[in-house]
Amino acid sequence: MTSHLISEFWDKKALPSLMDFIRIPALSTAFDAEWKKHGYLYQTCEHVAAWIQKQIPDAKCEIIQDGERTPCLFVEILSKNVEKNDTTVAFYGHFDRQPEASGWGEGLGPWNPVIRNGKLYGRGTSDDGYSVYMMIAAIAALREKQIDHPRCIGIFETQEESGSLDLPYYLQKLKDRFNNPTSLFVLDSHCGDYQRVWLSASLRGIMSGTLTVKTLDHGVHSGTYSGMVPDAFAIAQTLLTRLHDPITGEVKIDACHTQIPETRRQQLTYASEVLGDLVWNHSPLLEGVSTKLNKNDEILVNITWKPALTVIGVEGLPCIANAANVVTKEVKFALSMRLPPNINTKLAAQSVRETLLKNPPYGAHVDWTNVNVHPGWAMKSANVKNEELLDQASQIVFGQKAVFTGQGGSISVIADFEKTFPNSTIVLTGILGPDSNAHAPNESLDIQYTKQLTEVISIYLKSVL
Q: Of the residues 111, 263, 276, 429, which has the fewest C-beta atoms closer than 10 A?
């Protein structure tokens, strides 16, 4: 339908502008304390807004920055057919970037856009500067063919890599202008390969905190006191076994588990069949080390719909070079527990706290502090039509069914969108595929796949009316 137009649009209009976008070193606020003084975040918004106006002159682009908050770009494109404006499709992306990182390949760099072997390299290509260009290319192709499209809204923030702290404010400020979108495309996700559409139907949430165990006023000689006084490190390990099995990883807290919808389980089974060993063999396991589970479908379920605990930091023990024969007085563990969607996070947090603090061995002083909890997310199963439209578009463009999978990580903005637009269907997709290296050296965008996903969205915009 529009594949040639979309390909030409990307080559002649979108890619040159995206390359200029990459040249702006717009680090996220967490990595640039003087972001406001430097002005790069605002500059990205200006650059994109000017480009949109050239492509679609009737588009309304507004850069909004209230007080000390980060800027965001709000875009509204009305349908030429007034009656079609009753349907709204929204898009989300972000313009801020992760730090540069070292180790880029020869001739490559974070702010030096290079096209090589069908890929565009540079920081912010796939994560996710492409998002706004994909939205505009999809609409422009329909207009070129004089095909109706719904009213389209876009919000592109500049703080996602720092937690999207200002996004809830802007969503509330702009809520009435969104006008209850039918669907909302979050173009900041992964794809398992470049041969079909990948849709994330779920995200795990996260609970983090600091477990502190103290048994002594000060460290003491292990020769005199070991076997007499309790070891804070050993007690902390014991408390962790209350939360999970240290070998299997099975979390023991009932409130941290959920019933997995059968539809999602079937979709994950299909995704595992498509991916095969790609489900796990991208992990850097040492020779002879196995995964916790042997079946690909079980692994995929485990990393998307089940809780998992990780110790991500330890304090209180000296480095080996400075280790003496001492029973330490205190130890702290930084814990991160991934949580499945569709659970009561307050109950889960309460259960974890009670489990850690109840009757500690030897009356040790135990504390659970700095607790943060962010819920997971699951695509609404009720909107079968939406899933069918995306699947049909995937088969038209790729000749392959769409694959619905899940992500083990979290995207904080999803909860903000669901809270603000409870009747909208969130579509979580993206181009972060194999070797795209987001956040790392040699970040890249697969140009052909980007064009094809743009066509899928263009078909969806036509079909959703």
A: 276
